[in-house]
Design a protein that fits this description.
Number of helices: 9
Distance between the termini: 36 Å
Shape: globular
Radius of gyration: 18 Å
Strand order of the largest sheet: 3-2-1-4-5-6-7
Strand content: 5-15%
Number of strands: 7
Order of helices and strands: HEHEHEHEHEHHEHHE
Length: 260
């Protein structure tokens, strides 16, 4: 069957009519993802631990009142997540850009302190996305379609850019990428695709904080620069769009050639 030119000649990423939920929406990658989705004509809801009220106000002035919503959310609180998504949904796509890095040395830190940080990292980086998916997937199943995009990490591939990277963070991102593979299998029969972007070294506040500890000493990047948040936001928007409707279980490595 030949598809007509009229059906083919259209913007490659058009999200008109899509309702996208972006978690971690006030961070570097989250902001870039919000911008890319709005640029593709989606309706976007911003959720973050910090209330995005001012961001919502500015975006509504830019793209219109009816295309942007937002609220504060602790994704580690499953009751709050369920309530908020019930109030603001339904959604056709979810981009979870939430995440945290806390420095830590498994062998040399005080054990209680290290475990406290481990629990915090896992709560935000792993339990948070699971709470969100538990809340959004049933409605996607009922509709017979949906797109999920999570944030992994190059660290889940190579163990971190150097030995100073906290293994708890590496473990959390490895869990996220395994979660993508697991859910892609169970959700595919319902028409739901689940993918992730695994960033390399991206100029975000989180990377800047880690740089103070030496955890992100910069290796030689083949493309000759570190990434900008937009380098991740655009692929995240792509994974939330109809353009990715035949992809699932994929981890997109976006790292300037550090992992090939």
């Amino acid at each position: 069957m030949t598809t007509s030119w009229a059906d083919l000649v259209r913007p490659p990423v058009d999200m008109t009519g899509d309702r996208v939920l972006v978690l971690g929406a006030t961070g570097g990658i989250g902001r870039a993802t919000v911008a890319a989705c709005l640029g593709a004509n989606a309706h976007v809801t911003l959720l973050d631990l910090r209330d995005p009220e001012e961001d919502v106000r500015q975006l509504r002035a830019l793209v219109g009142e009816d295309r942007v919503a937002g609220a504060a959310l602790d994704n580690g609180d499953k009751a709050q997540v369920a309530r908020m998504i019930d109030e603001l949904g339904p959604f056709t796509a979810v981009a979870d850009c939430s995440g945290i890095y806390v420095d830590g040395d498994l062998l040399n830190d005080d054990p209680d302190s290290w475990e406290t940080n481990f629990d915090r990292i896992m709560r935000i980086n792993v339990l948070g996305p699971l709470n969100v998916l538990r809340a959004v997937l049933p409605e996607m199943q009922r509709c017979g379609r949906g797109r999920v995009a999570l944030i992994g990490s190059l660290g889940a591939r190579n163990g971190g850019s150097n030995a100073a990277v906290n293994p708890a963070y590496v473990a959390s991102k490895g869990a996220v990428q395994s979660l993508v593979r697991s859910l892609s299998r169970s959700m595919a029969p319902h028409g739901i695709v689940v993918n992730a972007v695994a960033p390399g070294m991206i100029e975000t506040p989180m990377m800047a904080a880690a740089s103070h500890t030496g955890a992100t000493q910069r290796p030689t990047i083949p493309l000759g620069r570190t990434g900008a948040p937009e380098d991740i936001g655009r692929p995240m928007a792509f994974l939330c769009s109809p353009a990715a409707s035949f992809m699932t279980g994929m981890i997109l490595d976006v790292n300037g050639g550090l992992y090939a």
